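Q: I'm writing a short explainer about Isocitrate dehydrogenase for a general audience and would like to include a description of its predicted shape. Could you first generate the structure from this sequence?
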Amino acid sequence: MTQRRITVIRGDGIGPSIIDSALQILDKVGCDFAYDFADAGLTALENEGELLPQKTLDLIAKNGVTLKGPLTTPVGEGFTSINVSLRKKFELYANVRPVISFKGTQARYENIDIITVRENTEGMYSGLGQIVSEDGSEAEAKSKITRAGAERIVEFAYELARREGRKKVTAVHKANILKSTSGLFLKVAREVGERYPDIESAEMIVDNACMQLVMNPHQFDVMVTTNLFGDIISDLCAGLVGGLGMAPGANIGKDCAIFEAVHGSAPDIAGKNLANPSSVILASIQMLEYLEMGDKAEKIRNALKDVIESGDRTTRDLGGSAGTTDFTQAVLDRL
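A: Of course. Here's the predicted structure. Afterward I'll give you a sentence or two in plain language.
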């Protein structure tokens, strides 16, 4: 049997250390992957002279599945977000951000289980048509929603809900004000929802959705929304379960998928053995489920859950005093 090859981008800052944690765990559970390592971000800029080298793009396309650490895009004119570039390049139209409560995280809520499905290539966040006047007094950007783009992301959300036995999909919008773009998204969402009579369909204006997530998050199951709203809501949801250190993300397209830690590269703690690797471990669980290796995904999830719940060798953000390597070893010991 041919060994499955995975492209691995270690990333910047704390990226290499948390990615190494995830790879140790994947190996321990017996995934038997072959890893092709590639550079992107500041590391690539230093080594290759560009943020996103062609050979990295080639490896992503060749293997079809990538595990990625956090990347840093330099602040300044002319630098485009690497994550946005990857999503556009490989048409990774679906951003899937699940949040699940783990006892021991000191989060404000218990029993949270919400998936945010975010359209990843259109809308305001895509950076389309950004213009700043020569005198710096005016700036504008363009938001574009297509029927095809809205339909495929809403269908993705309903299919995910059906596949995972979820009961409800909530379309989040601002159609009361943004009657053209958000209005089209909502119209399409309603049409798609009618094709799934087995799943409850709901809709909510984005500002109300944010308030409701804080007041009563248990009313939500799967949320589907446009690019910018999804970026904000998914981080809000991460706050319900202990922060971005407990939130993974998957970027999925027709022929390619990239799984990532969604937090930043945290250069202030890079190399200090302090980072919580849970986000990228959870992203690797998403990757295994995508590859139909659910049994191994469940083993890792149970081991991670037990470490966090027991408080055994947990990192500072989880209330412990252990470092990245000790936390990783605690998960390995359970496996």
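A: For your explainer, you could say: The chain has two domains: 1-112+242-335, 120-240.
Q: Perfect, that's easy to follow.
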